[in-house]
Specification:
With 123 residues, the chain is an alpha+beta fold. It has three helices and five strands; from the N terminus they run H-H-E-E-E-E-E-H. The longest helix has 23 residues.
Length: 123
Amino acid sequence: MQSKISLTLVALLMQMFFVNQTFAGTKEEKLAEKVKTGVAKLGTGPEAKIKVKLKDKTKIEGYITESNENQFLVMNSKTGQTIPVTYSSVKQVKGNNLSRGVIFTIGVLAFLVILFVLVGNAS
């Protein structure tokens, strides 16, 4: 009886291990999904600045003009050329975009500092 339980537990553990490996995806797929999520967070337009290094060592710098399920478009600010980039071809990406919440917070903090300085000088 105990051997059947032990064998069942071993079989279940092995099944969990192999199922986990199947759903985890490859390292490249995980990176592509992470890039896709990051590009979506940056948004599009001139304020969605991005620096991309591709697996073939090409470097692209500009801003995101469009994104979809398979790729995103980067407008080179210097040349005006739009370059399509597939998520799977990206090796490294750096984005720069302040969200509205961050901009609002900075504005409120700046207002409070100015108010504090004015009230402190009035006393």
